[in-house]
Amino acid sequence: MITVTDNLAEIKQKIKTAANKFCRDPQAITLLAVSKTKPCTDIITAYQAGQRQFGENYVKEGVTKINELKSSCPEAIWHYIGPLQSNKTKDVAEHFDWMHTVDRLKIAKRLNKQRLQGANPLQVCIQVNISGENSKSGINVEQLNELALEIDQLPNLTLRGIMAIPSQPGNKKKLKQEYIEIKHVFEALQQRHNAVDTLSIGMSQDLELAIESGSTMVRIGSAIFGSRN
Ligand SMILES: *Cc1c(COP(=O)(O)O)cnc(C)c1O
Fold first, then answer.
1. Could you identify the atom of ligand 1 that is nearest to the CA of residue 204?
2. Does the beta carbon of 210 sit less than 6 angstroms from any atom of ligand 1?
3. pTM of the full predicted structure?
């Protein structure tokens, strides 16, 4: 039987191989294990194999797991990577370490206000809509700079970078175009903001292309935990 532990080892090897192929330092690419819909037992298995960064997509499910795993996975770092309605920001602000899908000032302001006193700042990425299609969430590239400047003014948030989801993951040509654009957008943002070091792109299917395109954080779910129903 193929286990979470085997899968993790295989993914880490893939990251290393891709990094070497594109002359990048494998250490500069963080593996985020996306555990959405998967049970806590799988997360514990990954944790025991050394995995520390975990991503969740649903607020309620994420908070339940974070609370449940406090003692068994004390060093786990939790990333919120799902869409977020403004009436659910409090749970993210209070329980997660990172938030990848900030796409408007209203959400950023609420997270800033709701972050608990004495906690480290919430580490945030702005979700960018690279395809320009209305249906996708994420801010348009033209509005990115303004939002980034506004987030810099919020003391309980630290802007770490940008996150993107490809518009048509199955379309290799389009995917490549989008990733080239996002790489440029990221590099330009990095020039203007000291703390920006994170480009959150790449999932199970497009890991190699994401690493070629400068990803510093790949979000891998099914290739670690198995397919979701
Ligand atoms: C589910 C999800 C992932 C992981 O996708 P896989 O194809 O299972 O690797 C990554 N990022 C986001 C935003 C997701 O929702």
1. 9
2. no
3. 0.97
Specify the pLDDT at position 168.
86
The verdict on the CB of residue 34 being under 6 Å from ligand 1 is: yes
Asked if residue 36 lies in contact with residue 61, where contact means CB atoms within 8 angstroms, the answer is yes
Alpha carbons 110 and 90: distance in angstroms, whole number: 8
The finding on whether 4 has its CB within 6 A of some atom of ligand 1 is no
Tell how far the Cα of 100 is from the centroid of ligand 1, in angstroms.
12
d(CA 17, CA 22) in angstroms, rounded, equals: 9
Question: What is the pLDDT, as a whole number, of residue 2?
Answer: 72
200 lines ligand 1 (CB under 6 A): no
- Residue ranges of E strands in the chain: 30-34, 53-56, 77-80, 98-102, 122-129, 139-140, 157-163, 198-200, 217-220
Q: Cα separation of 143 and 178, whole Å?
A: 17
Q: Please give the number of the atom of ligand 1 that sits closest to the Cα of 32.
A: 10
Regarding the beta carbon of 222 and ligand 1, being less than 6 Å apart is answered yes
Low-confidence ranges of the chain (pLDDT < 50): none
Residue 78: name the closest of 111, 137, 114, 33 by CA: 33
Q: How far apart are CA 216 and CA 31, in angstroms?
A: 9
Q: Which residue's CA is the nearest one to ligand 1's atom 7?
A: 204
Q: Please tell me the predicted confidence (pLDDT) of residue 134.
A: 63
